[in-house]
Amino acid sequence: MDVHEDAPAPESDRTADAPHPRHTSVLVGQAKAEIGFLQAFNSGRLHHAWLIAGPEGIGKATLAWRIARFLLSQPVSEGNETEGLFGDTLASTLPETLDTPSEHPVARRIAALSEPRLFLLRRPWDSDRGRFKQDIPVDEVRRLKSFFHFSAVDGGRRVVIVDAADDLNTAAANALLKVLEEPPRDTVLLLVSHSPSRLLPTIRSRCRTLKLRPLDTPEMVEALGRIVSTDPAEISVLSALSNGSVGRAVELQDAGGPEAYGALVSFLSDLPRLDRPALVKLADSASGRGSEDRFALLLALTEFFLHRLAQTGATGYPPDEAVNGEAALLSRLCPTPEHARAWADASADLLPRARRGYAVNLDPSALLIDMFLGLQMTASGPAAA
């Protein structure tokens, strides 16, 4: 595999504390996308470029690696016949899944990042600065030329994974577009994208799209049970908090999201009254050196709570309870569509204001106090009367 890292380095396409997608053999909840790709493969008219699109953390990269293992373990075929070692043709049966045995040589090489017919394009690690580069530079895309030249010697199919295509800078995107316009023979490009609308229209137009969807609660429970070690009750909370994103759920668990959300719901349970000492303590917890993640977590959890409030008023009933007492609180604070509009307006005003203030280095503690006082005003406003 054309990665050539002298020593293990952080990987920009990996969620912290979760296995890298190349090590994940089972993909939960995306059978429709898998079947769509498999049908195209079995038809003998496989498109040369695929855009794997959907929200972050729902399995797009896992699907890309499953497809890569599958393609590189399959002989290059013409229709329903497979080319043999000496140019003869062998009868073949059409594969029914994308599964590749873990003991297959291709699967082993991919797991070790040593597959010569696979090229991974991702944000590189800047060892001098000790961080990832902000985007995928054009020099990374230009390395494809060497990859195509040397991998052609081995023959067979080649695969390129771009994770994520959203990270390409302008020059890199234009360089990749040239490859998409004139793809080498027997090459498949797999572009992972969280926001396909941000890609060049010409890139999107040259790809066939596989749309992945957020996982539902049972699928989340199954997926999380495979990669996190926690009790079923916490998995249920993580499922609700992450909106169908396994990657987001792993991040939330690492940041203490379930406990923080329970504390937030408890803190807001007396609205329209607020415990001022508790408010100051909560705000101070996200202030000071090293508290950036805490501030972002509190804003994300507050946004989640406000979304669920608006959903409760709009539909007339609360979503599945994430923590004890949440459903009763949501129903009390937002019983009607009028309340839902008020809470949606508050969310659209207060959260961006806090984020803008943080971006210009205003005091995080003051920003959080202002936000929660704004929520108190909403709870006491005309819609709540």
Provide tags for this entry.
385 residues, alpha/beta, Rossmann fold, Zinc Finger, Delta Prime, domain 3, 2 domains, 3-stranded antiparallel sheet, 15 helices, 50% helix
Describe the protein's architecture and organization:
- The structure is a single chain.
- With 385 residues, the chain is α/β, with parallel strands linked by helices.
- The protein has two domains: 21-211, Rossmann fold; 255-384, Zinc Finger, Delta Prime, domain 3 (Up-down Bundle).
- Helices cover 50% and strands 10% of the residues.
- It is built from 15 helices and ten strands.
- The chain has helices at residues 31-42, 60-73, 105-111, 138-154, 170-181, 201-205, 217-227, 232-242, 246-254, 257-268, 276-284, 292-315, 326-333, 337-359, 364-380; strands at 49-53, 77-78, 81-83, 89-91, 118-121, 125-126, 131-132, 158-163, 187-193, 208-211.
- The protein has a five-stranded parallel sheet with strand order 5-8-9-1-10, sandwiched between helices. A three-stranded antiparallel sheet has the order 2-3-4, with no helix packed on it. A two-stranded antiparallel sheet has the order 6-7.
- A hairpin with a 2-residue loop joins strand 2 (77-78) and strand 3 (81-83).
- The protein starts with 30 loop residues before the first helix and ends in a 5-residue tail after the last helix.
- The model is unreliable at 3-7 and 79-91 (pLDDT under 50).
Pairing-aware structural class of the strands and helices? alpha/beta
Beta-strand residue fraction: 5-15%
Number of domains: 2
Count of alpha and pi helical runs: 15
Strand arrangement across the biggest beta sheet: 5-8-9-1-10
Reported by name, the CATH topology of the largest domain is: Rossmann fold
Q: Sketch the topology as an H/E string, one letter per element.
A: HEHEEEHEEEHEHEHEHHHHHHHHH
